[in-house]
Specification:
Layout (H helix, E strand, L loop, with lengths): L2 H5 L12 H16 L4 H16 L4 H47 L34 H10 L1
Length: 151
Amino acid sequence: MSEKGNLYKTVTVRFSFINQEHVDIYKEFTDYCDENRLSRNQKIIDAMGFYCRHSMGQDETAILDKYKAEMDRYAKEMREQLIRDVESEVRQSVMKELLSIMAGVGAGVPPASAGGGGRGRTDKAGEPEEEPENDRIQDNPGIVESAMKWG
């Protein structure tokens, strides 16, 4: 036996020109190989390999589904982290605003949202009006404690 006999095994593929499906496959196969200058033998080996991997449970769709599931999980984690970051940033911003408003009221500066109310109000004669006791935040430590719990 020659050396070539040990290096190659021959497999015959027969197309029946009586069967229209065989005719169509053969035409597509030869046209594709001719147009792309590919080896017919290599394309048959590629097709057999693809078939064997699928029939032996190494389905590419299962691999793609695995990667898709991993990407979905990663995207979900990234969305959740982004939401947490935005919530934290908003919380810090609100706390800074609240503290600056409370510090301003405690220092005698009227809050901007009070519409000119608070300290510095005047009666009709132009005299400063005395602030009612229940409007003073500094006399009510529960408000400051509540605001600190929001963060």
